[in-house]
Amino acid sequence: KNQVEQSPQSLIILEGKNCTLQCNYTVSPFSNLRWYKQDTGRGPVSLTIMTFSENTKSNGRYTATLDADTKQSSLHITASQLSDSASYICVVSARTAGNKLTFGGGTRVLVKP
Amino acid sequence: GAGVSQSPSNKVTEKGKDVELRCDPISGHTALYWYRQRLGQGLEFLIYFQGNSAPDKSGLPSDRFSAERTGESVSTLTIQRTQQEDSAVYLCASSPGTDSGANVLTFGAGSRLTVL
What's the rounded mean pLDDT across residues A79-92? Predict the structure, then answer.
């Protein structure tokens, strides 16, 4: 069964600090992995998308890594800002018909001043 | 349009009533998805459209749920005889095509359904 597990479920950090979110998956055959940011009351917005051959991808202060051998990904937030408070969702796509995505449960990040 | 539009943004209904939720995808996007997100939970896949056909309906939780898409554009998710367990945010997303290796889903803001 395809699964995506994220940790921690939630975390609180002080403004200006860094944090790292984890994503482990068992989706096969692997196609790509995406990180989304979901603000409260809004739909998810894409941050990064990585295919099998990509190890690192950055989007501003967000840096995602992918280890396809261990089936792990991380999202690193640098110099956090209050606007980074949101849920971060790891989504893995299997290379199968139908383009079905498997969503992780998300990590809720709260940045405090 | 510029983004994915969903309506209504909020819907409160009584148990047993039928509801219709609408999604207007980005113009030209052939793939359209419906997801359900219960409070504090992750997204659950409901159904996927490619054009007007739905090759994957595996996520629809019961026969009370149905969806259609017309003109390779607007989609409607219908929930019949609503139950309190149906209370959730229903998210619609669209993407340019079927290649999951290249296309990013653009989500709407969701329709929040509350069944009393």
Answer: 96
